[in-house]
Structure formats: structure tokens, C-alpha cells
Amino acid sequence: MDYITVRQAAEKWGIKIRQVQNLLKMGRIPGAVQPARDWLIPKDAAKPADERRNNRRQPKKASRWRAKAAAPTPDKNLILLVEDNKHLNEINRRNLQSAGYEVLTALNLAQAREHLRRRDPDVILLDVFLPDGSGMDLCREIRARTAAHILFLTSLDEHSEKIKGLDMGGDDYITKPYKLDELLSRVGAAVRRHGMRGPGPAAETVTRGALTLNIVLKRAYLGGADMALASKEFELLYLFIKNEGQILSADEVYKAVWVQPSIGDANALRVAVSRLRKKLEADENGAFIIESVRNEGYLFTAAS
After folding, report:
1. What is the pTM of this model?
2. In the Cβ-directed half-sphere of 252, how many Cα atoms lie within 13 Å?
3. Which neighbouring-strand residues pair with 213?
4. 24, 91, 92, 127 from 4: Cα distances, Å
5. Is 57 exposed, middle or buried (0-12, 13-18, 19+ CB in 10 A)?
6. Per-residue pLDDT tens over the stretch 91-108
């Protein structure tokens, strides 16, 4: 798609640059993107109609629309978008909905917690810096009670901060500014790995001694206790169990769990394996071992 600048859009529509900026703030220009600092507008976008008069005459209609948009849609995967930038929040919401997802939006932690009390999302897009606290703290708070894939939206490119987010229970991160197609690709991969919930047959389980995995619900139990695994940890454990006794290279594991090449990002895998090891250590018999085989990969064994 071809894009034009804000200035070019103003000249094309015969209005002031500030008016175009206001339209962007209100989310009135479909398809507009902000890949960096400046906005880009689709070249074939039409000038939005002036709806101020209609908005004054029909406040009840707008209210009914909002109520309808918030209603559950069981046949769609549910995304919770937590982003305090109103413009970016609106752009992401529209694009996610266009991609076929049901989207809940929150501008702060309080709104996110309210959504989580009522709904159980498949994927959570979580900004790190929010007006009332840190997205990382929310991740740590909810990780034990949700199997949702948590994807951090962060402007931090510091390696230590990314590792901290994964340690808190996050599954992945995307650094701002990012392209919308990359965000949609990451969400799509997360949904495929998480699996669609809904009516279906009885839960399929895999058992190894004291360890039981519910494949449908993406839950793992050790000695009957919920291990509270993050989605990436569950996928790792399931992969290791399916390949018990076989050495898997780090690249093979990363591709299988993150659904993309590692591109030198081995730290995310090391952190996830480390977290999984610690949780498996809760087994009093020490029956489950993830061994790092030097220069080869990982070897999972389960004592019979």
C-alpha cells in the first residue's frame, strides 16, 4: 500500500495540518500507521466526513454501539490490548478486529484488571510503561491464573529489560516502533500455539509419572498441583515430552515453540528453559530432568 505524509494529506483534502492531526488522534483515518515518529496515511484514503453534528444529535446511538462492541464473541479468539497511547491503542484495535479477533482495550492497569476479572483472553498485548504502574508487575500478578500468551509492547531495547519481562512470565516482546504486519504476525503465531478454546471433545491428556499435561487447556500438573506454566513453558514441556530421550538443538526448540527462526536470540529460550527447570524441581523424586548437552542442545528425561 502506498502512503502519504500528514502535510500531503492536508494539501490533498484542502484542510490544515492540525485538522489532519486531530483526525488521526480521533482514529478517523482508517489504515493510518505510525511506524516511527511521524504518521503515514494511505494514499487513496478519502477525507473523513465532518461528524460533529451527527455526534451531537445521536449520543444514544454511539452508546449502544460501544455496548455492542464489548459483548463477548465466542467464535473469535480474544485479545486484551493494554496500551496507554490512545492513538496507538485505537489503530491496533482496528487492525486486530479487521484480522478477525475480538478485542478488549485498556489504557491502564486498572482497566486491564477489570477486563481480566470478567474475561479470559487468549493473548494479552501488554505495554510496559503505564500511567498507574508497570506492565511487568501485572504480568507477574496474573501469570499464575492465566494461560494467555503475554506479548510485551516495549520501547526499551535494553537486553536486561527484555529478560526481566520473560522472567516475570511473559512469552515474547516486540520493540516499538513496530510495523503493524509484524504485530499481526506475532499475534497470529501466538493464537496458533495457544489453541482456540470452545466446545469440543473431552480434554486430551499426556501423563509421565507424577506429571500430567492437559493439551486442550494448556495446563500442566505435577503431583496434582497446577504448575502455573506460561504458554511458552507449556509448549516447551510438551515438546520435550514428545521427544523424550532425544537431543533437540536450540534452534529446533526455538522454531517449534516460537514459530520463527531464533536469529541469534538464544536468551529467550535459555530463560524459558531455566524457569521450567525450577518448576520441575518441585517433584520430590527429581524424576524430570532437562539436561543441557554442550554444543548439541537439550535432552529431556523422565524416570519411570
Report:
1. 0.48
2. 11
3. 206, 220
4. 14, 17, 20, 28
5. exposed
6. 999 999 999 999 999 999
